[in-house]
Design a protein that fits this description.
The structure is a homotetramer. Chain A is α/β, with parallel strands linked by helices. Chain A is built from ten helices and 17 strands. In chain A, the strands form three sheets. Chain A has a nine-stranded mixed beta sheet with strand order 16-15-14-13-7-12-11-8-17. In chain A, strands 3-2-1-4-5-6 form a six-stranded parallel beta sheet, with helices on both faces. The radius of gyration of chain A is 21 Å and the shape is globular.
Chain lengths: 389, 389, 389, 389
Amino acid sequence: MPARSSQPDTPELGIGMVGYAFMGAAHSRAWATVAQVFDVPLRPRMAALAGRDGAAARAAAHRFGWRHAETDWRALINRDDVQLVDICTPGDTHAEIAIAALDAGKHVLCEKPLANTLAEAEAMAGAAARAARNGVRAMVGFNYRRVPAVALARRLIAEGRIGTLRHVRASYLQDWLADAAVPLTWRLQRERAGSGALGDIGAHAIDLAQYLSGEPLTGVSGLMTTFVTERSPAGASGGAEKAPVTVDDAALFTGRLPSGAVALFEATRFATGRKNALTIELNGELGSLAFDLERLNELSFYDRTESGTTAGFRRILVTEPDHPYLEAWWPPGHVLGWEHTFVNQARDLLTDIAAGSDPEPSFADGLQVQRVLAAVEHSAAHGSAWTKI
Amino acid sequence: MPARSSQPDTPELGIGMVGYAFMGAAHSRAWATVAQVFDVPLRPRMAALAGRDGAAARAAAHRFGWRHAETDWRALINRDDVQLVDICTPGDTHAEIAIAALDAGKHVLCEKPLANTLAEAEAMAGAAARAARNGVRAMVGFNYRRVPAVALARRLIAEGRIGTLRHVRASYLQDWLADAAVPLTWRLQRERAGSGALGDIGAHAIDLAQYLSGEPLTGVSGLMTTFVTERSPAGASGGAEKAPVTVDDAALFTGRLPSGAVALFEATRFATGRKNALTIELNGELGSLAFDLERLNELSFYDRTESGTTAGFRRILVTEPDHPYLEAWWPPGHVLGWEHTFVNQARDLLTDIAAGSDPEPSFADGLQVQRVLAAVEHSAAHGSAWTKI
Amino acid sequence: MPARSSQPDTPELGIGMVGYAFMGAAHSRAWATVAQVFDVPLRPRMAALAGRDGAAARAAAHRFGWRHAETDWRALINRDDVQLVDICTPGDTHAEIAIAALDAGKHVLCEKPLANTLAEAEAMAGAAARAARNGVRAMVGFNYRRVPAVALARRLIAEGRIGTLRHVRASYLQDWLADAAVPLTWRLQRERAGSGALGDIGAHAIDLAQYLSGEPLTGVSGLMTTFVTERSPAGASGGAEKAPVTVDDAALFTGRLPSGAVALFEATRFATGRKNALTIELNGELGSLAFDLERLNELSFYDRTESGTTAGFRRILVTEPDHPYLEAWWPPGHVLGWEHTFVNQARDLLTDIAAGSDPEPSFADGLQVQRVLAAVEHSAAHGSAWTKI
Amino acid sequence: MPARSSQPDTPELGIGMVGYAFMGAAHSRAWATVAQVFDVPLRPRMAALAGRDGAAARAAAHRFGWRHAETDWRALINRDDVQLVDICTPGDTHAEIAIAALDAGKHVLCEKPLANTLAEAEAMAGAAARAARNGVRAMVGFNYRRVPAVALARRLIAEGRIGTLRHVRASYLQDWLADAAVPLTWRLQRERAGSGALGDIGAHAIDLAQYLSGEPLTGVSGLMTTFVTERSPAGASGGAEKAPVTVDDAALFTGRLPSGAVALFEATRFATGRKNALTIELNGELGSLAFDLERLNELSFYDRTESGTTAGFRRILVTEPDHPYLEAWWPPGHVLGWEHTFVNQARDLLTDIAAGSDPEPSFADGLQVQRVLAAVEHSAAHGSAWTKI
């Protein structure tokens, strides 16, 4: 087992988290675990959690190991023992919290998508740029960049192993809305969620495509649809009137990259049987790479430079010591889980803060994803017309 | 083993084949084999083969078991011992041969795509409709409908096993052009091939999508690209000047079906490592089906009506006696090969001719595919604008 | 497409086949097809088929394309137009027919297993050795050596690509007896079938293990069992008395090879859900190979000499022109089926006969498999005691 | 997200851990995490860790979150704040520590295999039986029972979903010794490790086979081998003399279960390319189940009671809320990692202690595994002779 010590005198970094639902649980576990796994230069101190419902916030703090609970995120930002604000709330609150925290000189980790609107995202990117001049760091939580298989894919691409890129195809397929009886929640309401499948999960596919290719999308043509246009509100009795679904159930789009490569995207929560299938494949002149989040410890790699006699897609089990992040985890073949992407993310963020360098993905990266989302919506609303980004 | 007899007094049907390259070889094997495998009502008699080069045509006839060779397809059509004309030539000759044969009262099997232009395809469909009134049959060779796994998928969909359709995603990925040093051939010249990846392999994906869903595409938005814009002519020495590639290397498009389902397509010959990956997945409210031609004996099926505890994509090995076509082949687990799709196709065509019924896919089906191809090209030439079909 | 011509003046070789059931059908198709696919030096002429039931034999001959039918295999052997006798009958008749044919100067292709008893197999190997001195050839039909993926595995092993062999694990799993209601047939009766799963399918696993490793098993320890000890006779009404099953339903055994490698085997017809799963994996110091007959166009290869960062089991789609046998079939990605193994086998046999060389697997190879079968039975009958071969 | 609260007044249970290497790291993480994930009735308090090297023990305690460090395991046992002793040391120390702890009235969790010898295991089982009368609990750490897919398999088998069992085949394949240059460590020395692949990893395969089938093995026939008989000591310079490897590199064995089912086992650290492939398949009259630890979130299930038309092995993604343990983890499709098996194990142990019930696997279960290990070694030393258990 590789050494994974942290020295007793490792400095601490106080963390304050806003929100404590699904993402809050995942982030909490990451903050509690990162210094056990990695020899990080800063030891996170889980200072306080903020939530509007005091009792619930206190219970969550107890459960997840936070020292204090606040009911006002502004109070959290102002705490002296908080140096980093971790934003795990729905998208409509991101901008306000993040800008306030950055302006107060606190580092920020903000869940994706960066915001619900392009204007908000632009304001946030501006705040992050200002803060950076003062050594304050901002990162957007596209955690799938921290899947070791994805990071390995990026490394191989950067090394030229697949050559000139031709094709990207990325999709994020889930099925939890396939049943028309599933009730209406905030995720299906435009004013809270911003968009549906496109922003919720399509954003991940876009970020991975741009991260892995190393190129921004320059234009898109999109098609969006809502299969089930109204649903019963959550908790409503049988006779309750249905309310409209105001977001997309599925988004399909094509795109172009500066190198001449073309890209194909799909995001849906109606792909029956696909539970969490974020898949991406990249074909280059010299090779190809393919990944599926449902098998997150594996990367497929085809190397056209080897003899055609023995060429074939290899299933790389990404658990070797020299694979990204793996030097600190378990021996070969002992696989990681979904939540460990957040531990890896925390490692990178702490490392950057200690080193005084800007973490990735930056708010500018998040803004670029937001521009793609906006362009897809614009195109879909205009007969799939080609829309520049 | 099931009985597979053909009675001694089974009537014969004289076959005349035009072309003897890749498709000609596959069709020859099918005609030679079909009556051994299936108890067909008509026994095909391999009467004559036509090709412009007399010596080569005679050699091919000898090799593949044809009784005679002709150098003029018109002579072939006029032979008394030919009742069915099998067209295996490049697309630019399909219309002339097929219309002449139908007008001469000969049944026609025509390789896909039906034609190189919409006008030709319309003329052919018209000729087929006229001929049908006289009991003359026409079929277009979308052989992948005859993969047992595909036919099983169609049966399950027709039975309602996946419910209301939401998504179709179909792609045909090959990689034989990924290397920029591959020379220029007729398949890369618009005047001979009509189009590139779109018509050559994308046509199969379109036909499968429409066949399996049972719905025609009503509109598309397309994007096409040519990655390698010029190549050295085949057989040229190193210093030869390159000539332009005038077809698409890849085509990506979205589409809609009348039921409200959305569809996503991709055809390319630049997907490094993908050799013959015609894949299609359909997601419905009650279930999903997925197929990959590289594993042509398998069908994946997810049934949402069963308990969530044990639900999962099943790998059905489509080799059971009650699977389509399998009653006549081998015991369970003894897999079929690519060429056997042509044997199954020949069985269905002979059965329809004997029964006096119109075979599928008809020339009208071929024309519908052609309309989709034309719409994709139109959209791609107009900024991906939505194009009705 | 590669050239696949046979010259008009290619000499012919007259074939006579005994038996026309499952194996007879497969062999007939191979003799009819081989000269269309390969440019073979001898063109097989399907002279006559022999079967005890005259009407059935004539029908089979008509169906499969044999010129004549005989009711006595001795008459078949004596025909002037028969130079090769192809034995497709149950195992209890192999010895008598094969020895008579060889003694009559006819080449022999004999289905596996070579015989039902070790004594018979020894007599057959003796006859083959005598005949070889007169240029008469004998081959045993372990057709799975002719799966291109298996032949490629052999080539890679012979080239040293997996280094010193450590492990072989081979199994042949089917499930057609899992249901206790399946009736009793000759395959479950020792006097006809010789043994059960062991000889019927285990023989294939043994032959592949020895062929791929290039080493004979030197000893084994076996365990055999019969799960369903009596069954109703085929065609019997519900009240019919059951009769005993006198063969093994499953056989498991370990073994050693001269190099120090160890081997593990399993053969069963009770592996519910496994239809035709002949699987074999070989682990060497430098690499590993794995194969599954249910995916017969694929070979898995792990190469430990490449960087650990990108090492992984590759799925080689064995359809490239430089893969064994593939130069004569279809373009990459166009897969072969089970029956094509017999076409490849016929190619090799015809080539050897024309070249005057002894084909493989020889009757001596078949005898070696028989010795292993006998040793497994002996060990299983003596408390799994180690039994030398 | 399901509720995962622990009330503020949840009673605590003091944990003392002996050993802090590979297993110690995994157990530490489990104790730190279990109350965040599950609503457990006892909240573990990480009281103290023991290790002979004081500085290293203190560093590990700091890193992993233990309050105190001890250099003597006897002192750890005697601490008032320790109610449960968690033994993560090599096998040669298990018996002494476990018996002392149990006799001192402390609950014990002991890593597998239970001991290095049968005599030790018997003494431990005796101590556990005595302690149980006083409400003191003992559990052996066969953590793979806590893989959700494995627990689901057990549930399906217990419900009769695969019917009468016919076959078990289990193997544990790794490859970290395939390279003869890997140095000698304590794991390759009989006096420390007890045995090689057999006890280290084969023990897991045996436990799973017995757990899933619900039956103890009644006899075995074994074969063991050591491929590389001497290696250079760890840390030795190039010229150092090699020392003998005194354990098995691979063990293969067959076995029988009381129901009449037969079993096949293999354990090796020489299966090049297999990193952590603990695989098990069970075939019953009505269905089959298959599992592979390298894809630990998946279970394959074949149900013969459904129509043969749509039957096939299903890939169940074991991440649904009603799958074992999953009610407390993440939404469907968000996969777990290897280390989470220890969290699940801790949940079950805490629940049993609070409920006053005996946890499984018990020391008696560990002893039964030990008896199988001893029988395999005996058989291998006696010509694979059948050895009763």
